[in-house]
Amino acid sequence: MRARAMSLGLLMLSLAASGRAAAADAEIATAPPIWITDAGGARFRVRFDPGERLIFGAGAETVAGDLAGLRAAPAFGVELGLMLRSDRPAPGWDVHWKRNHELAHLRLHPAAGTRGAAVDGVLYRGLFLRQSREGTLTLPVTPPFALPLPFDIGVLAEVGHLRGALWPEAGGPPIDAGIVYGEVLADFWRSRQPGRWLTVGVGGRYEIGLQRDAAGTLARDDRVSPMSTLAVALHSERADGLAAGGLRAEASHRWSSARGWERAYRVDADAEVTPLALNDRPVALFALVTAASSPDLPQPELRVMAGLRFSQPLR
């Protein structure tokens, strides 16, 4: 009886895995075409890839230096960057790595109110999600054992995360240079479509902060988060790439060489809608919201930016 029950359980697991694989192939096959041709023979691009393009954006922004009082300073910012991602998995795949890369993705604020020029962005960020057709992780034992998982696993890597004033003023906010950040994460969405994930991760970071005190003396602050940063991220985009958006919340328990153990928080949200294309190049409306609170900041900050984003598709 026990052997029969085990056989039935294995059969049900096999059927469930087959169903997931068939659904994955169907999800990939339903991707809309990139180009269409009208009755007159003219070709139009109707699908864009937000993860495979050069971008340049510009818009107005509001910087609130106090989240409680919301004292806002109007300003202007520009955005640039290079996005790359892996191809979609081919039908019949077994294991696929969903890869998203950001290179020199920076937002520059030439005159951020009374705070002077500022920057926010990353020199390199890579998101790598391992997807198994059968929904398992094979353990290298003898004999090998396939461990079923209710999520995909992956890693996030960052090098050169910059945030803050390009030239710190006396008593003002610092410039934070994130040397390296690594995060181990689980993706509970498990979507085979590009640009879709729901991740929970634990990470570690090393960064350096440069800040001037009231007397104008430049001080260095080394900050280490020894795998004590918890992050939750949600991102989605339409299959045709004409709308996308995401939300990321991060809480960090870190050690500072200037203040000892402390906590820092940050929330990032973004949205993008593409209403038109010029010469088959998308022109999008975008909005970005960033909120940050940490002991190194003179006060909590809220930054909102909205404008136009121009893209050069790379495929």
Strands, helices and their partners?
Layout: H1 2-29, E1 35-37, E2 43-45, E3 53-64, E4 72-85, E5 95-109, E6 118-132, E7 136-139, E8 145-148, E9 152-165, E10 175-187, E11 197-212, E12 218-237, E13 243-256, E14 260-278, E15 281-293, E16 301-313
Rg, nearest Å? 23 Å
Low-confidence stretches: 1-19
Mean pLDDT: 85
Report the helical percentage: under 10%
Rough shape? flat
Q: Can you count the helices?
A: 1
DSSP strand content:
over 45%
Oligomer: single chain
* Elements, N to C (H/E): HEEEEEEEEEEEEEEEE
Biggest sheet overview: 12 strands, antiparallel, barrel
Strand arrangement, major sheet: 3-4-5-6-9-10-11-12-13-14-15-16
What would you call the structural class?
A: mainly beta
Number of strand segments: 16
Distance between the termini: 57 Å
Describe the structure.
Helix content is 9%, strand content 61%. With 315 residues, the protein is mainly beta. It has a domain at 31-56 and 75-266. A 12-stranded antiparallel barrel has the order 3-4-5-6-9-10-11-12-13-14-15-16. A hairpin with a 5-residue loop joins strand 1 (35-37) and strand 2 (43-45). It is flat, with a radius of gyration of 23 Å. Mean pLDDT is 85; it is low at 1-19.
